[in-house]
Specification:
This protein is an alpha+beta fold. The protein has helices at 39-42, 45-61, 63-70, 84-111, 174-184, 206-232, 241-252, 306-309, 324-344, 382-401, 439-456, 465-473, 482-503, 505-508, and strands spanning 161-162, 169-170, 256-265, 269-276, 289-295, 352-356, 359-363, 366-367, 370-371, 415-418, 422-425. Among the domains are: 168-230, no CATH class; 238-371, Phosphorylase Kinase, domain 1, CATH 3.30.200; 373-505, Transferase(Phosphotransferase), domain 1. Helix content is 39%, strand content 10%. Its cofactor is Mg(2+).
Length: 521
Amino acid sequence: MDPVGVAAAPAPAEAGPGPAWPSKCPWGAAKGAAMSCSLADVMSEQLAKELQLEEEEESAAFPERAAVAEGPFVTGENIDTSSDLMLAQMLQMEFDREYDAQLRREEKKFNGDSKVSISFENYRKVHPFDSDSSEDEVDWQDTRHDPYRADKPTTTPKKGFIGKGKDITTKHDEVVCGRKNTARMENFAPEFQVGDGIGMDLKLSNQVFNALKQHAYSEERRSARLHEKKEHSTAEKAVDPKTRLLLYKMVNSGMLETITGCISTGKESVVFHAYGGNTNEEDKVIPPECAIKVFKTTLNEFKNRDKYIKDDYRFKDRFSKLNPRKIIRMWAEKEMHNLTRMQNAGIPCPQVVILKKHVLVMSFIGQDQAPAPKLKDVKLSSEDMKKAYYQVLHMMQQLYKECNLVHADLSEYNMLWHEGKVVWLIDVSQSVEPTHPHGLEFLFRDCRNVSQFFQKGGVTEALNERELFNAVSNLNITADNEVDFQAEIEALEKMNEDHVQKHGKKVSAFPGDGDPPVCGE
């Protein structure tokens, strides 16, 4: 059979019978006659190779056309913007690009130069047709495998060894154990910096690793204790969260109108000024201005508190040196009881309003937020100084005989000159009874401080410390020098302590008529 032409030229209108075809194509003018080839040419392999080479050359000359042909790549030139859905997708894609860029900036800012980094990969919006991403933007920290990170040592199988014959390696191998110990250091607390031991191929022995592990554990516990101590202590300005809550409750209940600020700081407490409010109790009157004394709950600055409280029979059974907060509460309660005794005896001192744990609210000695000056800060005339001396002498005798107390820290720092005529006593939390094992020793120290201050102030009538001690206590110790005087005081304290242990605390207490203490018998 003869070959058939696949493409023939248009025949003339008059050729052969049949229907008459128009000479002009209804779809437009023909661009040109196509080359005709036989079926044998189409089936030949040589023609197929030539066509394949032409396609490859065309793809190399126009790569954009090939990329478009491979998949539906969306660009701004070939999008039909008449569709609302397509516009919404384009806007969403642009928003996702900006969101991913913002996440990258936040991630870079958050991680900084830290060795341990945080990845926001799970929150990113990744589109398969997003062409803005490049290989330069790949963050190695976000990949599962970090090519710059050393591989961890391989684990030993359950059988306990790898290899055969002479090449066998057990789990007790020195090199294997050293690398495992180095890898296990990463399980230490984040605060314990171990460095890049795996990258340096560091090999730690079991002894070194155990020492480091114990040290890391100790440091973690110490850090936790310091953090807890900082959260629950009142060393700095004495206001921790619990103390602040107590003050808030006092203000919310109406007992205090407002707290203005700090007026005094000391080794044992911090004093704040506040304006008094109203109370529902009819028998309690809150002064217009109050002083809030907050005792510090740390013993760093005043470590010998137990010396004043553990031998006081009023608190001896409740004393616990292992609990600082209990000591502070007892310390505040001790000052409240001492102030109450002094107030009942008519000694000028702050009036107790209320005690809440380690917060003591008292009347304010001063006016318009200005506290009364201490006796050491005020300049008095000779008459006022002499008047103040006799007031202090009378108050010491009242405190000893009527209140059955020794101030134990009496000096010009704890006496206020109020309204230009009266001496007020403050800070009596350390005050003890004369029957205390060191009560007479504390009294002699108070007499020395008072005598030296007023003698320097020009009071010629001021007694020396031994004369003042006898005038206050009525013990009439006759010693020529201070050493013998103190020796007799220690002997009386020893005698008094034995008497208290033999007869009990009730027998050793003062009667109400102001008789001398037991140690004078």
